[in-house]
Structure formats: C-alpha cells, structure tokens
C-alpha cells in the first residue's frame, strides 16, 4: 500500500519464457523452485528445501532517499542490514550515491517518476534519466515498474502503465549494464477491486510477478491464497511459471489506527513477521520484502501509521520483529549453499493439527529443520491481543533420532533453545503460534537419500559451531577507514586519565593499526571543563560508535599490547546507549544498554596478568553494579607478542546471556548473566591506551610505546 514517488530509473530485461520452475540464477539473484507445502497428516516422506533458499526469500524495503528521516544515517542502515544478515532490499533508484554506501546488499530498484499532486501522474519525459540513474547502482539485481499506480484516481492508469512499461523495456534493453537484469511487473495497491484489471496488457513486459499481500493487521495467511490467484490473473494466468514476488507486506505498530490497514502490538508483530516469511515461502512466493526496515517517526506519532512500520524503531533499536528476523536468518542462513541436493525426511504429527502448518528445510551438512507454527490469529483490531491455546502434539520421527533441539522465539524476538528427547521415534511438544524450528542432527555418511538412517549421535556440546564473518578491518591499507572508525580527540574523557587523545597518535602501517603512547606536553581540550589545558602524555583511542555495533556473536582482536607502570591498554565493548565520549555518569553506565565487556586490559593493580571483565547493573558507583573479572597470570600470556583475544557473547537457556573470554582459542573464563535485560542490546568497539587509573607512570615507564592491532573481526553463529 505504500506509494513511493520521487525519482526513478530503469533497467533491462531478459525473457525467461520456457524456464518453468527451474532454478535460475542471474546477476547474483537466486530463483528457487516453489517449496512443497506439507500438511499435518500421518507419517510420510517429505522432500526438504534448502535452508538457505528460504533465507534468500527474505528482504526489506528501505527509503534511503528520505534524508529528512532516520534513513539519513546511512552508516547505521548499512550496519543494521549487515547485523541482521539481510541480503536484499527494495528501494527507489533516485539516489544511487547513497545506495552504493550500503555494502554488499543486493538492491531491487523501483523505477518511476511522478509529477503533480493527486493524481500524481507518471512523468514520462524523465523516464530515460531514471534509467541512467539505475545503471549507477553497484549491486542492482532487478528493476521494477511503477508502484501502486492504480491508486491514482481519475486517470486511465492501465493505458498509462502500458505506455510506460513499453518505453521502459526499450530503455532498459538499450543499457548494457541493465540489459541482463529481470524486470518486475508494476504493483497494484487495490488488486482486489477486479479479478484481472491488467488482463494481458502487460504480460510481455515483465519477467517476475509482483504484488503487495498485506495481511491488513491480521494473521499472515489472511487472504493469501486469494491474492496469489489474483496475481496470477494479472500475469495473464502465468502459463510460463514466472516467479512471484511480494515486494511489500508486513505490519505497523499504531494500534489506534482505524484505516483498512490496522496495526498490531510489538509483541504480535514479533510473532507474525517470521510466520509471514515462512507462510509466503510455503505458498511458493520467491521473495518477500517486509515493509519496512526502519520506522520513519516515533511511536508517539499515532496519527501516522505510515510512519510506524519497521523492524527497527526510528532510533535504530530492534523491535521484536527485527530481532526475530535477525535470529531467524542467523539460525538458518548458509550463504552460497544453494546447489546441494536436499534429501527427504519421514515424519508425521499426531494430535490436534487443524491449525498446524510446517515447512521442512535442510542445511548442507544434512541437518533438518522443521519449521512449524499454529496458523491462528493473535490480535483483534482495535481490541487487543487475544488468548490462545498451544495444543500438544506428537511428532513421529525415524527411531534413529534420540534428541531434537527446539528453537523458539520469546516476546523480544530472541531465540530460546531447549532439548527435547525422542523416545522410540516419538517427541511430544506444544505448538506455539510463533514460528518454531525443530532441529534434527545430520545423518552420518551414507548412500541413502533419506533421513531414515540418521545416527543417534549428536555433535558434542563443546563443538564451537559454524560462524559467519559479519564485519572486519584488517588494516591492509595505508590509512584508517573513516567509514568504520572515529578517532577520539581531547583529554579527561573517561575516568582519571592523564593522556590527551590525538589523531596524530593513530596510524595504519605495515598491515597493522598502530596506537602510539608518548610522554610529551601538548595543549588540548579538557572534556570535563571545555578548556584548553596542557597534557603531559598523548595517546590514541578509536571507536565504531554510531558506525558499527552488534548484538550477540563473537569478536576476535589480534594485538600486541604495551605495558609498564601507568600504561593502561584496553580492547573493549560498550553498549549503544552509552555513546562515544560520554562519561560514565552521563550515559547511565552500566545500566541495561550501557554495559561494558573488556576483551582484555592491563594495569589496574598489577601488570602481571591479563584482565577480562564485564560490568552491568543499576548505577555507576561501586555497590550499585555487578562486576565479573578473571585474570590470566604471567607467564601464561606474553602481551608483547601477538595474541588473539576473543569474547563470545550470546543468549543462553532460560533467558540468560553467556559471555566467554578466550585467548588464542583457549577459554579462560565464562560468566552467565541471569539478570533480565542486561547484555541484550547492541554494543560497539573501543580500542585505546590510557595513562593513569591503572597506576601512576614513573621513571620505569618506557615511552613511547605502541599498541599494534593486526585485525578486528566480528562473527555471528550460523
């Protein structure tokens, strides 16, 4: 239902006629066979779909050109897309300069130009210039015609769409860069007003069907089958089996809105959104783009439902729906694993299965995931959340399985993991209305093509698992990457420190980040007073604050540390709610969202040990917060040589958070945080060497010294 407007651009087209449902890959875009929908019946052999094929269907809408909205922070948009693992976005092509700042994400570009006000007519003279803008987008993988033009009343919109698409196709074909790309049909805002308002008039101008099956504030399956049939009618029956994409769908969070598109609560949105992706995949929809990534205004703006869509709020905080999508992708994603042949699993469901739906997925190592949910409503518009039951059912699996790992979403969109025993091939479980993922371990090497010979054994709990690189800097150039790092400047920024932080003390040299600490008198700004004062020491500090933060995963930093009396090197993480440069007292350190995790530090009471710490609690003074600290004494770690310092931070069972510290892949300590709400928000990276606090510098303090960092890498679990 969203109307985009603004500028446009155009692309080329390749006819896919005759390909039927064969998998098709072009320009980095993955088309997959429609999944087989399985019904809740007795035991039967079900053909699995590749898990990553499901992840490939997940996309979001963005509005990068809205530079007066929160989208103006393009660096944070890029960061959140990377954190969430989202591979596809849909946006207007009018700002290729901004779209090209979003990294590796693939872009479906909407090409249209409008003129006038109500009706906002298609601006034909600008079509070719819009096509030229589209060609400037680096990661463009498909182009789309005008958005919901049928909503412009009082115009012959069918005729105008035909004229636009004819000219659009010619312009796209004439552009060498755009010519290989598929073209999406124009979307309709009111596709229900006629069974086939477009008829056959556009059938030869697009390669992919396109519709907006918003559930209207109801459960994700609401009218989906009917909307698919109407889409096929608008595709002239789709005899060629062209892919179908839902380029808009989703929920907003204005529960007082009385329009035809009512809102839902955050909690319900967190439960509905993963179901929406699964429901559409089950129905054979090749891609679904949630509307949208980021809210355009605060939740208090209840009069603007258009402003209150978003997996993230207008401050880039995760809604439950955003958390759920991120965790769903993190669990099921296997980038590049789209060519193996998945096998079959024989299973059934006994009990009250009237509302139960499922989809069977498989990873390349043979692990099966049964996605299962209750297809029931959780919210009544203008009334509120409705109660529901979780019927108990029994899954029947091959008797070779003895245990299943069940992943379930909590109210915040986080995944909880529980182990369920399988006894004589039977597993009892209650089916929730939120998506559940039942994980079955891979079968051992075998010539069988089904899971019937699966082994009872599982990987040991100590197995570290598979990881995906999310963000890194290996300092291979000759200057610092300003897109990733901010160098702090000034003195007296935190704690009782003597140094002045300067850009001159931070450099990239010989494949390393170099932070130099020196004894020299330099005037600089005192952050506590705002005055220019002399400092007796200089050093360097840099951070990813406002440029990159992450929530859960692992971080590796390979570094050589300086040492000596009064020298305090620290590699650490700080919560997003404690922004760069803020003193502990002003940012509510270490309250929820402003906690601290130190990968490693030296100094304090002794430099004979590395120190690994976490801080969290309700206040910024001793006794009001909790501190967990562990030490590795010399000669266990030679900090003057390169060592890899690691923190793994992830949710654990029973709504706890587990933090583990490692040196060179050897675990040195672990702490489970059970207090609710802590270490549940994104954290950003700090690298610095301070003087003082850890002790007073003296005659034995050797200066200058350097901290060398070979790389910083952030990972998430697959």
Task: Write a concise keyword list for the protein shown above.
718 residues; mainly beta; eight-stranded parallel β-sheet; 8 helices; globular
What is the strand and helix layout of this fold?
Blueprint: E1 24-26, E2 29-31, E3 44-47, E4 49-50, H1 51-56, E5 58-61, H2 74-84, E6 88-92, H3 96-99, E7 106-110, E8 114-115, E9 121-122, H4 127-134, E10 140-144, H5 157-173, E11 183-184, E12 209-211, H6 224-234, E13 244-249, H7 266-282, E14 287-290, H8 320-332, E15 344-351, E16 356-362, E17 368-374, E18 379-380, E19 384-385, E20 392-396, E21 403-409, E22 415-421, E23 426-430, E24 436-440, E25 467-473, E26 486-487, E27 490-491, E28 499-501, E29 506-509, E30 512-525, E31 532-539, E32 541-543, E33 549-550, E34 553-560, E35 567-575, E36 596-603, E37 606-617, E38 625-633, E39 643-651, E40 657-663, E41 666-673, E42 683-691, E43 705-717
Parallel strand pairs: 4-16, 5-6, 5-14, 6-7, 7-10, 10-11, 12-13, 13-14, 28-31
Antiparallel strand pairs: 1-2, 3-15, 8-9, 15-20, 16-17, 17-24, 18-19, 20-23, 21-22, 21-24, 25-43, 26-32, 27-28, 29-30, 30-31, 30-43, 32-42, 33-42, 34-39, 34-43, 35-36, 35-42, 36-37, 37-38, 39-40, 40-41
Helix pairs in contact: 7-8
């Amino acid at each position: 239902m969203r109307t985009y407007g603004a500028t446009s651009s155009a692309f080329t087209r390749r006819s896919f006629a005759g390909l039927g449902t064969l998998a098709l890959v072009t320009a980095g875009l993955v088309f997959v066979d429609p999944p087989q929908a399985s019904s809740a019946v007795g035991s039967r052999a079900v053909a699995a779909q590749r898990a990553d094929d499901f992840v490939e269907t997940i996309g979001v809408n963005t509005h990068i050109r809205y530079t007066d909205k929160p989208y103006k922070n393009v660096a944070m948009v890029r960061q959140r897309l990377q954190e969430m693992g989202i591979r596809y976005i849909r946006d207007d092509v009018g700002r290729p300069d901004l779209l090209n700042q979003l990294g590796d994400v693939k872009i479906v570009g909407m090409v249209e130009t409008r003129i006038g006000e109500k009706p906002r007519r298609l601006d034909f003279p600008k079509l070719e210039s819009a096509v030229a803008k589209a060609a400037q987008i680096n990661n463009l993988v498909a182009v789309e015609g005008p958005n919901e033009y049928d909503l412009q009343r009082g115009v012959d919109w069918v005729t105008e769409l035909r004229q636009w698409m004819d000219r659009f196709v010619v312009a796209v074909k004439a552009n060498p860069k755009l010519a290989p790309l598929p073209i999406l049909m124009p979307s309709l805002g009111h596709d229900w007003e006629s069974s086939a308002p477009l008829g056959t008039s556009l059938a030869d101008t697009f390669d992919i069907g396109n519709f907006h099956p918003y559930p209207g504030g109801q459960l994700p399956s609401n009218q989906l089958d009917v909307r698919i049939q109407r889409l096929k009618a608008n595709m002239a029956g789709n005899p060629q089996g062209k892919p179908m994409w839902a380029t808009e769908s989703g929920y907003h969070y204005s529960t007082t809105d009385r329009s035809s598109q009512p809102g839902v609560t955050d909690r319900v949105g967190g439960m509905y959104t993963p179901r929406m992706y699964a429901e559409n995949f089950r129905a054979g929809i090749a891609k679904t783009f949630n509307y949208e990534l980021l809210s355009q205004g605060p939740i208090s703006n209840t009069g603007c439902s258009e402003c209150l869509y978003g997996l993230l709020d207008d401050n880039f905080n995760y809604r439950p729906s955003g958390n759920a999508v991120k965790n769903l992708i993190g669990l099921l994603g296997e980038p590049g694993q789209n060519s193996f042949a998945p096998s079959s699993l024989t299973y059934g469901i006994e009990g009250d299965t009237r509302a139960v739906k499922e989809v069977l997925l498989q990873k390349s190592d043979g692990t099966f995931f049964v996605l299962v949910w209750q297809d029931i409503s959780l919210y009544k518009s203008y009334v509120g959340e409705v109660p529901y039951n979780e019927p108990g059912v029994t899954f029947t699996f091959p008797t070779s399985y003895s245990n299943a790992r069940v992943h379930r979403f909590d109210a915040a969109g986080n995944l909880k993991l529980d182990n369920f025993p399988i006894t004589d091939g039977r597993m009892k479980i209650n089916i929730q209305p939120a998506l559940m993922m039942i994980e079955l371990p891979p079968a051992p090497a075998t010539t069988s093509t089904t899971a019937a010979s699966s082994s009872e054994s599982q990987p040991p709990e100590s197995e570290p698992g598979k990881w995906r690189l999310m963000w890194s800097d290996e300092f291979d150039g000759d200057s610092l990457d300003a897109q990733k790092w901010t160098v702090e400047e000034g003195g007296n920024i935190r704690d009782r420190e003597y140094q002045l932080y300067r850009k001159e003390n931070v450099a990239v040299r010989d494949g390393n980040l170099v932070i130099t600490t020196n004894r020299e008198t330099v005037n600089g700004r005192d952050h506590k007073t705002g005055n220019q004062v002399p400092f007796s020491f200089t050093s360097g500090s840099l951070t990813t604050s406002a440029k990159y933060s992450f929530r859960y995963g692992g971080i590796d930093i390979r570094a050589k540390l300086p040492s000596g009396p009064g020298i305090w090197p620290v590699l650490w993480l700080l919560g997003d709610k404690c922004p760069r440069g803020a003193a502990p007292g002003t940012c509510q350190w270490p309250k929820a969202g402003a906690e601290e995790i130190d990968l490693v530090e030296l100094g304090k009471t002794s430099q004979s040990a590395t120190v690994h710490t976490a801080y969290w609690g309700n206040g910024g003074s001793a006794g009001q917060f909790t501190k967990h600290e562990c030490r590795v004494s010399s000669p266990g770690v030679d900090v003057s040589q390169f060592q890899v310092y690691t923190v793994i931070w992830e949710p654990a069972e029973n709504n706890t958070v587990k933090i583990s510290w490692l040196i060179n892949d050897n675990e040195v300590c672990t702490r489970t945080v059970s207090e609710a709400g802590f270490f549940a928000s994104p954290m950003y990276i700090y690298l610095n060497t301070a003087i003082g606090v850890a002790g007073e510098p003296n005659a034995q303090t050797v200066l200058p010294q350097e901290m060398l960092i070979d790389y910083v890498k952030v990972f998430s679990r697959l």
